[in-house]
Please model this.
Amino acid sequence: MIRMYERIALITAGGLVSGLIAAAVLFPPDKTTARPNGVFEATAVAPAPHPKRKLQAQRFLPIKARGSETLLAGVNVRALNNHRPVRVNSAENLDKTFTALGYDLDSVRSGHRQVPRLFLASMPSDLGDLQEVSHKKTLFFKTVLPLILQVNQEILADRSRLWDLQTRRKKGEKLGPVDRLWLIVMAERYKLKSGDISGMLVRADIIPVSLALAQAAEESGWGTSRFVREGNAMFGQWTTAKDEGLVPEKRDAGKSHKVKAFNSLLDSARAYARNLNTHRAYRKLRTMRHRLRQKGEAISGTQLVETLTRYSERGKAYVKGLRAIIAVNKLKHLDGAKLNTDA
Model:
């Protein structure tokens, strides 16, 4: 009887090890993995979730991004240069944390500084209480920028692997089961057939930072809307009545759509990028972006914004508003921003 239990234990342990190995092969660490710019310490008691919010029982959410750390509301942050811990549960304290880490948008625009790998799970609830508009805008952009850069970094990692697999296949090399399985996953993500690597390369590409920041500002009311406060919905994506989401207060009679809610801001950013990269309404965006790639030109938010007339019922007026946000806030100079890669 003891030997039988030993065999069962060995088989179970072997299965777990095999699963871990398979996960490591399918999802290897990103080569750009870097140490975070801050050490994050959860407080003893997490703040209670919003009463209307059912998606998360706590505010301490695990990040799925490789080589990154999460900065959550209600978390103590100690910079690596031994700054004293500060509780980041308010816009004021978040601003102090950014300042302590030397996070300055003008330095990022000029290329003199990279963006720290700091990711908020949710917006500070008092962001809308800031009286100075420019201060509120700056804090909003500083919060969202790392999220967009992280999503783009993930996309570029997939894109690099797709190029490698396409090159190997053109050389006549037979792809192994791990690569074939990964292509199936990518095909499902980008809504294409698993053998269509060329099609995936058109869809698996970055969203310009300037465009994403402008849309996040417009759709979330600069991080203060009910949708972003209750559901981390930065980009106003709709979902069906069957899915969990937030019901718009002024929804037209007879309509049943909701605004999709997310467990974290990063999840919202990922869903936004996937939406632009797969939905038929944004085929023009993908076509223009692909042409820019073919010409060796930079992917510009000021160019791609013209393709988003179908993102909002406002159509051309919506695009005009995004152009103004990009221009007034000098967002095009952030298109070249990069996440901190210091080890």
